[in-house]
Design brief:
Keywords: Ion transport, NAD, Potassium, Potassium transport, Transport
Shape: globular
Number of domains: 4
Structural class: alpha/beta
Organism: Thiomicrorhabdus xiamenensis
Protein name: Trk system potassium uptake protein TrkA
Distance between the termini: 32 Å
InterPro entries: K_uptake_TrkA (IPR006036), NAD(P)-bd_dom_sf (IPR036291), RCK_C (IPR006037), RCK_C_sf (IPR036721), RCK_N (IPR003148), Trk_Ktr_HKT_K-transport (IPR050721)
GO molecular function: potassium ion transmembrane transporter activity
Strand content: 15-25%
Number of strands: 22
CATH class of the largest domain: Alpha Beta
CATH topology of the largest domain: Rossmann fold
Strand order of the largest sheet: 3-2-1-4-5-6
CATH superfamily of the largest domain: NAD(P)-binding Rossmann-like Domain
Length: 467
């Protein structure tokens, strides 16, 4: 695909790297020459210096030949105007805009031509802040989880959990899992992350202490499976402290305050006041989240979960490590600088999340050929999960009518499950693919996505000919 990205910040750069590595033709536009030069030094991409919403700059970027525009600058208005011009001047097929302002997000009809013919034609509005908020809420729903991903509107869930030494499955083969679960609970362990490597499991693979285990199951069955990996039952996070009253912190508190005891700390007096006016049951504290005395005064040792989501990586890291040292059971920190992530997870912070990684994951399926409806990176890009729809018939598809064992999958792919007419079927060798099945795959090599697209592609039957 020919893709133009506006903005070479964290989100734009992360997208450019992923898309360039998948052999797309990528052009990045930015007003910062240094950012552009750094990208060009390490990636095979084209760069254009200039303002992202100027018509002449968009023309230089080659928008007339683009299949997709991703407007990901820091300015909402720039992104919206650029998408509008992309439609008016170049008829770009797919236009995606990063938008942070709540007012825009609360009025999606302004950007939907299907509902309003006078609307600005944007195919997708994406808010990294909303994505991060929803991601954290999923982690809170499953205490101890490292990553939670939904497929097909939540009918199937992928959960990553650390295996603790007292877990029932630890030091046992995966195929013994069925002995510990009720017959109606079906699951599949699709991958294990062990000592910086992805292990593609078989029934004879032994789970070790410290493994990060990725398993698929229906949402209602997830808690029972987690118990097998963690013998001690993780307590729900009742008392929560949030560091930062920006978009993420505010929306987290708003979502949690009816069912949890929530405290929110912000160093900015005006922002603290604004948040206090909009929240009903959250305790708002003005102060420095890295102040040990403040944390002790607020009974930090009684906090079950500490979530650091300020605009500063450094503040999130320091406050998270301090909170852990002072007795908080679990810490989640927003950290966008990838060079920090491995370091901090060895020093007390349980889960480090990245807004640009989450945003990139939520955009991936829009850049894929074929019928990929979801593509999500796992373990900071070490692996990927995909949901792909099987279209066609036995005459036009290489996979429909064949069992999983008969299909020539790339060696690095595991078929996890199939969703068929709202029914979840855990994959096995003799399971036959039918038309319109949603197939959930796990890949350890992102370069295999093109092979997946070829397998799922449809073609005209051999007897077809033009008359």
């Amino acid at each position: 695909m020919n893709i133009v990205i506006l903005g070479a910040g964290q989100v734009g750069s992360s997208l450019a790297e992923v898309l360039a590595n998948e052999n797309n033709d990528v052009t990045v536009v930015d007003i910062d020459r240094l950012h552009l030069q750094r990208l060009q030094d390490r990636l095979d991409i084209r760069t254009v210096f200039g303002h992202a919403s100027h018509p002449d700059i968009l023309m230089q970027a080659g928008l007339e030949d683009a299949d997709m525009l991703i407007a990901a600058t820091q300015n909402d208005e720039t992104n919206i105007v650029a998408c509008h011009l992309a439609q008016l001047m170049f008829r770009v097929p797919t236009k995606i805009a990063r938008v942070r302002g709540r007012s825009y997000l609360e009025h999606p009809e302004l950007f939907n031509r299907a509902e309003n013919e006078k609307a600005i034609d944007i195919d997708l509005l994406i808010s990294p802040e909303n994505l991060v908020t929803n991601y954290i809420l999923q982690l809170i729903a499953y205490p101890g989880s490292l990553q939670v991903i939904d497929f097909h509107d939540g009918k199937l869930r992928l959960v990553a959990m650390p295996a603790h030494e007292d877990g029932l499955l630890v030091n046992k083969k995966i195929n013994t899992l069925r002995n510990h679960l009720p017959n109606h609970i079906k699951t599949r362990i699709v991958a294990i992350y062990r000592k910086d490597e992805i292990v593609m499991p078989t029934g004879d693979t032994v789970i070790r202490t410290g493994d990060e285990v990725f398993f698929l199951a229906e949402p209602q069955h997830v808690p029972a499976i987690i118990t097998e990996l963690r013998q001690r039952k993780e307590k729900p996070s009742r008392n929560i402290m949030i560091a930062g009253g920006g978009n993420v912190g505010f929306h987290l508190a708003q979502a949690l305050e009816k069912t949890h005891q929530v405290k929110l700390v912000d160093h900015n007096m005006n922002q603290a006041r604004e948040v206090a006016e909009k929240l009903n049951n959250t305790v708002i504290i003005h102060g420095d989240i890295s102040d040990k005395d403040l944390l002790l005064e607020e009974n930090i040792d009684e906090i079950d979960l500490f979530v650091a989501v300020t605009n500063s990586d450094e503040a999130n890291i320091i406050s998270g490590m301090l909170a852990k040292k002072l007795g908080v059971r679990r810490v989640i920190a927003l950290v966008n600088n990838q060079s920090y992530v491995e370091l901090i997870q060895l020093n007390g912070i349980d889960v480090a999340i990245s807004a640009d990684r989450i945003t990139t994951s939520n955009l991936l399926h829009h850049t894929r050929q074929g019928d990929t409806v979801k593509a999500v990176t796992l373990r900071r890009g070490a692996a990927e999960a995909m949901e792909v729809v099987a279209h066609g018939s036995e005459n036009t598809s290489e996979i429909i009518g064949k069992t999983i064992a008969e299909i020539p999958w790339p060696s690095d792919i595991t078929v996890g499950a199939i969703i068929r007419n709202d029914q979840v079927i855990i994959a096995h060798r003799d399971l036959e693919i039918e038309a319109e099945d949603h197939v959930v795959l796990f890949l350890t090599d992102p370069n295999s996505t093109s092979a997946v697209a070829e397998l799922f592609a449809t073609s005209k039957p051999s007897w077809f000919s033009w008359s």
